[in-house]
Amino acid sequence: MSSSTEPRSGLARSLKTRHMTMIAIGGAIGAGLFVGSGAVIQTAGPAAIISYCLAGALVLCTLRMLGEMVVAKPKAGSFADYARIGIGPWAGFTIGWLYWYYYVIIIAVEAVAGAQILHVWVGLPLWVMAMLLMAVMTVVNLISVKWFGEFEFWFASIKVAAIVAFIILGVLWVAGVWPGDTGGLGNLVAHGGFAPNGFGSILSAVVVVIFAFGGAEIVTIAAAESAEPAKSVAKATTGVIWRIILFYVGSIFLVVCILPWSDGSVLSSPYVAALDNLGIPGAGMIMNFVILTAVLSVLNSSIYTSSRILRVLASHGDAPDWLVRTDSRGVPARAVLASTAVGWISVGLAYIAPDSLFLFLVNSSGVVAIFMYVMIAVSELRVRRAIEREDPSRLTLRMWFFPYLTVAVIAAFAIVLIAMVFSADQRVQLIASVMSLIVVLIAYVLRKRYGKVPVDTEVDTEVNTVADRALDS
């Protein structure tokens, strides 16, 4: 069967609402919160709270736009399809391949990070443990989508439980009822003020924080394999995302209350440092376990996401059509293995050439998330207007203050990209990621000229064509 006609019913619809809820939470809460937040606090001081609020608001709005399109057109398969519908085939091709590339690199990054954590407890060589972690998560994804959902459910549950426990302990400390300490809010202003490095540092930190929220959009890809896609996505892109922001902002607020922002231990591991300050025994080991869980969660979801986006690309003729096929359990096993194969190679490079080839791969995928957010917003701007003309009843979940807030979000992401130009550290990532974008655009030109399936006719049979007809009129 050709890639352009195979229905997506080949995927098993085994994910339940509880899976979808935890996929949304787990996708956004990674090691970036538990470890990377230290760099944000060092940059902005206690005002890092504002950085997390601003970045969280941008990501929340983007997910609301994506949720609107998924609920109105639940069979589109992924946000790459919405870019294809709203902007054009080149946009679907470009963001699809960039996003796939982004996640196969994350597979390697998380496998290496997990091996480094395990090395504290297990004496095996780092590369062996990285390969073992990848092998285990690959098998989980090959067995069934239900296994992926169950693993993600429990991984996310552990992360949420850890954050909730931290928030409870932190609130007790701030309230002054924790034994042996007076608590209070003094650290918010006692060491150079609330924003010791100025307002500019708050905006600089926003750039870093945006990447920490990356992964929450995975739930919209998983919708194709859920029993009730519209209901699950509507729930996951509204209430769940608010809870994610609460976890981030609430826990960061407590960290900067418990510890002086300038404390050197904040940079290395802020949550461990905060728990040590509270006198919690074994804080380091507890947090290492939680961080390992977060790493495995991201590794699990990265394998899942990269394989599904590769299948979507193949369904439009933008990748080999044999990647569309699913096995008897409804798993696109070929797409899973193709994605993990690149992950295996990247893990090898992480140990053979960590400071050259692997570092370039990481940098060249670093800004893809922002490229994706911008395309989602532009797609929603066009698809929403098209559906309003054709069938407004499909808009049961709506973006707030449309179109003004959508335009404002696009402008905000543009400002973030411009800000990266003036940051020496972030400029490297921006330039390398733009190079990746150029490579993919060149690949699209070659695809259009030499590809077997004409790009102007490659619309999946299950994609609703309401918006397409409206855009053509």
* Main sheet attributes: strand count, strand direction, barrel closure: none
Percent in strands: under 5%
**So how many helices?**
20
The rough form would be described as globular
The gyration radius over C-alpha positions equals 22 Å
How many beta strands in the DSSP annotation? 0
Give the integer mean of the pLDDT values.
86
Q: Which structural class fits the helix and strand makeup?
A: mainly alpha
CA distance, first residue to last residue = 32 Å
Helix share bin: over 70%
- Helix-strand sequence: HHHHHHHHHHHHHHHHHHHH
What ranges have pLDDT less than 50 throughout 5 or more consecutive residues?
1-9, 456-473
What does this structure look like?
The structure is a single chain. By secondary structure, the chain is mainly alpha-helical. Helix content is 71%, strand content 0%. The chain is built from 20 helices and no strands. It has helices at 17-28, 31-44, 48-72, 79-86, 89-118, 126-143, 145-174, 199-212, 218-222, 229-236, 239-258, 264-268, 270-278, 283-315, 333-352, 357-364, 368-390, 404-421, 424-450, 466-472. α3 packs across α18 (404-421). The two termini are 32 Å apart. Residues 1-9 and 456-473 have low confidence and may be disordered.
